[in-house]
Amino acid sequence: MLKLCPKETASMLTRDGVRLDADIYRPDAEGEFPVLLMRQPYGRAIASTVVYAHPLWYAKHGYIVVIQDVRGRGTSEGEFNLFVNETPDGFDTVNWAANLPGSSGKVGMYGFSYQGMTQLYAAAAKPKALITICPAMVGCNLYADWAYEGGAFCLQSNLGWAIQLAAETARLKGDISVYQALYAASRNLPLSDTIPARPEIIQNLASDSYYHDWLDNYRPSEYWEQLSPNIKDLDLPMLQVGGWFDTYLRGTIHLYKEMVDRSSCVQHLIVGPWAHLPWGRKVGGLDYGFAAANPVDELQIRWFDRFLKGVDTVILDRQPISLFEMGRNDWRNFDKWPQNHHKSYFLASTGLAAMKEDAGILTESCADVCTEDIFVHDPWRPVPSLGGHAAFPAGSFERSTIDCRTDVLTYTSAPLTADLHVAGEVFVEVFCTADAPTFDLCAILSEVKDSGSVYNLTQGYVRVNSGETPVRIVLQATCIKIAKGDALRLSLSAACFPAYDVNPGTGAPPGVARAIDAKIITLTVSCGGNNPSQILLPIVD
Question: Nearest to residue 304, comparing CAs of 500, 519, 64?
Fold first, then answer.
């Protein structure tokens, strides 16, 4: 590896005269080098090292690495306004980076989450120097892929992030009392205020936060269209990264599918058994083995070497999609996103699926006789979230205690007679009614081990207006081998709190819904006969 020059700090001016600051890491060698750019809002010294190797590692591989504070963050000037300035600022930054001393004029970008989004915003402006990007864990559509899922507000992740960003604003202003109050709130989220989704600390100490706009715009609208990155004409080679337990996986897959459908450039995707962070072999309560260790740094170097240096790293000889198959704990490669035939497992019951674990079953044939399971959602004691992709901590956990609750319906298959390989999107279609104008449904698919332990595999959530039936729930995509002798279980509930805000049953939007107004809701799930409630699994060989 190359020797390095001491880190330097440099500044640039945006088109409207705002100074943006960056740390630059460069090889101590003759010649010109491509630039790797990351733009982020958390203080550039962090450089996303929670998931990536330090910029020094990338610089030693022959790159000028630029880590920049976005507008209004770190030491950069200007006002931070979530995502609003990232397209023009990204365009200006790419052009500035391409003209740094020692630059070859070619720029690539990398980063995850907000740092992944800044790549999309910059690329949308089409700077000629930007040759390739490696966005990880992004929200292509900020409404459906980031802030809301199935029309329900992603409370825990949204509130936690809003408090973090507000605390950073207070820190930059030197406001000790506000910072300490927000810091304390971040360690124990305020979930019991009059309006649970809009706690007083956010109203009082972060009245100008984007969070309020996200609550007010609780349906798809022009607001979200304007805020989301405009990728309709984007056409660059991309290496995209996702995680089976990442809350933004649906955005990553959305972006990949859209780019494959219309792009003339190479598109690659890798999805590991990871949460939003960190990316490692142990997630939640399970260890996925040595193969699950983070390979992204090495992949990105090979990707950038190919597109920024013209080196044949044979990375394009591999199949474009690499999915980690949990259960088998190794990688599987595909030529295209799995869109295989879905196998149906139908719900059947004695009517006591909320009371006894053997009363509700999953079967490959639909029963002729229709049965009903009735359960009651009590907002005073909503079904708690545990793992999955929308809660913190994320991942797979032993959840048999939750499945024993009488406000959770469970349907379990017989032990499998052969290994079952699942890869792709999972869907649940359930005939459900309720005695309230609106209600929520959470569907969780789990593996029941022969020992009796129960581990969640994937889940989905939807907010339903009464009268909409059957209810279709899109579960998080997954890739897993379910071992012979183990069983499948579908768990249904009317809440998953605090991952999502509790539906008050009144029709009030989350930003104004008061805890005191929340209704007790009685729900009825029908199965069999003319109501073939089912789960549809994407089976692969």
Answer: 64
CA contacts within 13 A on the Cβ side of 372:
8
Q: Which helix (H) or strand (E) segment is 308 a member of?
A: helix 296-308
pLDDT, residue 1, reads: 82
Q: Is the peptide bond before 199 cis (omega within 30 degrees of 0)?
A: no
3-state secondary structure 10-49: EEEECCCCCEEEEEEECECCCCCEEEEEEEECCCCCCCCC
3-state DSSP call for residue 86? helix
DSSP 183-238: HHHHHS----SSSTTS-HHHHHH-TT-HHHHHHH--S--HHHHHHS---TT----E
Given this model, what pLDDT does residue 9 score? 98
Q: Distance between CA atoms of 528 and 400, rounded to whole angstroms?
A: 26
Phi then psi for 69, rounded to 5 degrees?
-80, 125
**451 within 8 A of 483, measured Cβ to Cβ:** no
CB 459 within 8 A of CB 510: no
Residue 436 near residue 521 (C-beta atoms within 8 A): yes
The residue with tokens 């972006």 is 255
Q: Within a 10 A sphere around the Cβ of 261, how many other Cβ atoms?
A: 8
**Could you list the mean pLDDT of each consecutive 10-residue stretch along the chain, which spans 541 residues?**
95 98 97 98 97 98 98 98 98 98 98 98 98 97 98 98 98 98 98 97 97 98 97 95 98 97 96 96 97 98 98 95 98 93 95 96 94 98 98 97 98 98 97 98 97 97 95 98 98 98 98 98 97 97 88
- How far is CA 247 from each of CA 46, 145, 297, 503, rounded to the nearest angstrom? 22, 8, 22, 20
- Identify the pLDDT of residue 340: 75
Q: What is the pLDDT of residue 209?
A: 97
User: Which residue is associated with the tokens 């939750």?
Assistant: 402
Q: Amino acid identity, residue 491?
A: S
CB 127, CB 356: distance < 8 Å = no
DSSP run (H or E) holding 506:
none
Provide CB contacts within 8 A for 480, sequence distance 6+. Answer: 325, 326, 327, 421, 422, 423, 447, 457
In DSSP notation, 346-360 reads EEEESS-TTT-TTTE
Distance CA 418, CA 416 (A): 5
List phi, psi (to 5°) of 533.
-60, 140
Would you call 289 helix, strand, or coil by DSSP?
Answer: coil
> What ranges in 348-438 are assigned the alpha helix state H?
400-403
pLDDT on residue 341: 83
171, 206 Cβ separation under 8 angstroms = no
CA distance 275 to 283: 7
**What are the residues whose beta carbons fall under 8 Å from the beta carbon of 225, sequence distance 6 or more?**
none
**What's the rounded Cα separation, in Å, for the pair 208 and 214?**
12
Burial class (CB within 10 angstroms; exposed 0-12, middle 13-18, buried 19+) of 43? middle
